[in-house]
Structure formats: structure tokens, C-alpha cells
Amino acid sequence: MLDLPVPQPYGALSNGEGVAMAGDDRTARSAGPPTGRIRRTAPVARLAARTAAGKVVAAVRRRTGGDMSEFHARSAERYAELLGQSKGALMKAGQMLSFVGAAFPEEQRQVFQSALRGLQADAPPMAYPVAAAMFEAELGRRPEQVFAEFGEAPVAAASIGQVHEARLPDGRRVAVKIQYPGAADAIRADLDNLELLATVVGAARTLVPGLSRMDTRAVAEEIAGRIDEELDYRKEAENQGAFARAYRGHPFIHVPEVVPELSTDRVLTQQFVDGWRWSDALSADQALRDRWGEVIFRFAIGTLRRHGLFNADPHPGNYLFHPDGTVTFVDFGCVKRFARHQIELIQDIVRAAVKDDGDTLHAKFVEVGMLPATGGPSPDEVLAWYADGFEMFRGRQPYTLTPEAVAAFQTQEMDLTGPHARVLRSLNPPPDFVFLARIDLGMLSVLAELRATGWWEAIRAELDDGADPVTELGRAEAVFRAGQAPDLLRPA
Known about the structure:
Blueprint (H helix, E strand, L loop, with lengths): L7 E3 L26 H27 L5 H18 L1 H9 L9 H12 L10 H12 L3 H4 L2 E2 L5 E2 L3 E7 L5 E7 L3 H9 L2 H14 L8 H15 L2 H15 L5 E2 L12 E5 L1 E3 L2 H4 L4 H22 L1 E3 L7 E3 L5 E3 L5 E3 L2 H15 L3 H11 L10 H8 L4 H4 L4 E2 L2 H12 L6 H6 L4 H20 L2 E2 L1 H10 L6 H11 L10
Parallel strand pairs: 6-11
Antiparallel strand pairs: 1-8, 2-4, 3-4, 4-5, 5-7, 9-12, 10-11, 13-14
Helix pairs in contact: 1-2, 1-8, 2-3, 2-4, 3-8, 8-9, 9-19, 12-19, 12-20, 13-14, 14-15, 17-19
């Protein structure tokens, strides 16, 4: 008998591991963000400058054996505090860049995660009359005129909208996400100021070794595109519908169905799902965590390989865990699409790293523009740098992912003073691949926190090379795939 917590009702909306939940006594929206380009950009620029100066001091301390924890704590707290005060797109950008903490050793990682978690925890819910008015403005009727039951208290409130549990006249339980009034206008005003977002990215870059050549403006444009999509609930409904079609009837992956007739630009209605949240999942039996880990890996990598879709927000608040080993995936406001040639390129890069093929790896990096064609690091240098991140495939199977292992290879992969400095100084990753790295690192961090053990290389070979499945879940999925239309959502 598994010693598991009692499932808590939770709508199909990510809670971000710390949003204001029903029962909070905060009922009014917080004060608006500071306005004006100079007023909003200057504090972020000051943060970047202070962090860069602090790194010089920290480097001296490191060489003399001094304690660097104070520097990292102050940097993370300043970064999170500033973006939290800024609200709007700046806070969303901070959330999207919060993956940087995974690149640090344990004591530093906990500081960053703790500070950045606050970005997602300061969203007081709308009072019910405001939420009802927003619903009526979008659908022409009040909630009580549409639903047989409608919970006035939200079950979750996040940075853009909040979710209410409801019941349709036919008895179906649904989650109704309602956007905060004015949220889209405020965030899009930030998105119009690309220099502001680029400064935020630059501030994050100063916190992470190995990102010094990153094109902050290009990355800011990529982030702006993803944030803009999150504001459009019709786009989210379209994204979620694509995932739901791909996994309808799947044996262990579940995506809630959207109710399109009750979804608009600012209201999204979908199937309500009960499940355990992240903190509950971490206390489950290890065998169950291993199974969940394989499900998450198959969902993330399999959806990219087969359908060209990648849920670009892979934090654990977007998963609902079930005692039968299945997982429900929620929140599809931020989805990245890849064309077939991009997927094949990704597969070629992974194969080369796994098979110690430095020549192919170097050629593919040149092809995507990450490395110069001449004058850069050699194929052997590129392989030595990149292959460390593929230990889960190259190491002895089954392989157990741990936070310590993920932090170690990320630190080595980004250390400008380490053995791979020549490669790092030559890198110029395009925005698509910066975002892909963020997604990959987010997924790895989730698997590491679960301490999931799996046959990762066999699963990769199954997805990339058409190898026969070796796990129970792989065989179950093969049966499911055999019954699907071969051209379902196949990327161009």
C-alpha cells in the first residue's frame, strides 16, 4: 500500500508552485507597475551593473577561498524583488528565465529557486464580482446563467488569470480560467518596449556563467513572442486542443479537453482534473516517481519528435500526478513549434553526442550558426564539452538523475574559466536553441528532483531511431501509436 496524500481538487491551470490559492485574504489587485521607459528600464540596468560588479568581487573571493554565498543570495533576491515589483511582462520574463538556478551548485540553486518562486506567489485573486463581470463581457452571460454550479472562490490565481471550478448542465466538471482585467494591455505595453525585455535578459545573463555571448535582443524577441501568446486564451485553447488530440485515449498521458464554445480571448473553459501537485509527488514511493519520470520524459521528447510541439513551460506546477502512474499535463499558453527539418537536426545533434561523433556534432553546430565555420574550437573540443550533458544516455543504464548531477554538468558546461572555455567563448546560440535549452533543462530539473531512474538511452533510441521499446510504458505506447492516423499533427 502506497503512503500517498489525499488528492486535492485542482483545476487545469498551473499554480506555479506558490500562487495565491482559494482562502487567501488578499482580494484586491496589487498596485500597477511603474510607467515610462526610462523609469522601468533604469532599475533593471542598475541591477545588471551591480551584479556584474559583484561577480568581480566574488571571483576574488573564490580565488582566495572566501565564501560566495552572500553574493549569490543578494543577486537572486535583487533580481526577484525588482521583477516582482515590476509586474507585467517583466515578471513573466523572470519566470521564464528562472531556469538559470539549475546551473548552480546545491546551496546556490536553493537561493535562486527560493527567490524566483516569489515571482509566482504574489498574485492576489480577483473578487468574484470582477471575475463575473469579465466572464459576462466575454460570453454575454453571467456564470450562473451558463453553469449549473460555479465556485465563486478561485481554486488558483496566477500572474495573468485565475481559475474557478464549475459544473456544466450536463454534469461535467470544468475549470474556468478568467484573465485579469487590463492584464493583456499592461503586459503588451511592456512587450512593445523590447529594450526593456532585453535589459531583463541581460540581467539574467550576468548571473549565469557561459551566457556571455548570448544575443540578448534576439532572446528577448523570442520571449516576447511566447509571452504574447500566453495572453491569448484562444491561442492557448488551440495549443491545448492539438496536444489533446495527439494524446486522446493515451494509456498514461492525459491532456484536459477544452470546451471551445465557452472559451474566448480572455476566458478558457476546460475539463477539471483532480490530482496530486508537485510537493505531494515528491513524497511518493520511488517506484512511482520513476514511472512518473518516464511519463514526463516521453511526453516532452515524444511530442517534439512526433508532432513538432514542445510545451515551453516545463516547471512542475504544470503536472498533476496520479497514483496509477499516469500524469495530466496542463497549461499550454506557452508552446514552441518546430519544423520537421529542425527536429531532424536536433536528432542528429543528440545522436552525435551519444555516439562520440565529434565531426558530425561540430558540423551541425556550424550549420545552425552556433559555431563559426573556421577559427573556432575543434570537433574533439566540442564533443568533450557537449557530451557531458548526455550522461543520462551515455552512462550505465538504468540511469538515475539527481539534482547534484544536473547541477554539476550544467556548471561544467557553462564555466568560462573551466576546460571548455574555448568552446563557450565561440558559442552564439540562435534564439530557438536558447529556448530549447531552457525547456530541456527544465525537464531535466523535474526528473532530477524526482530522482527518477530510467532506461533513458533505450527510450531515446525508440524515439529517434525506431528501436523496439524495452519498457512497459514503451510497449503500451506502441500499441496506442499503432491505432493512430500516421499523419496526425505531423510537422511540416
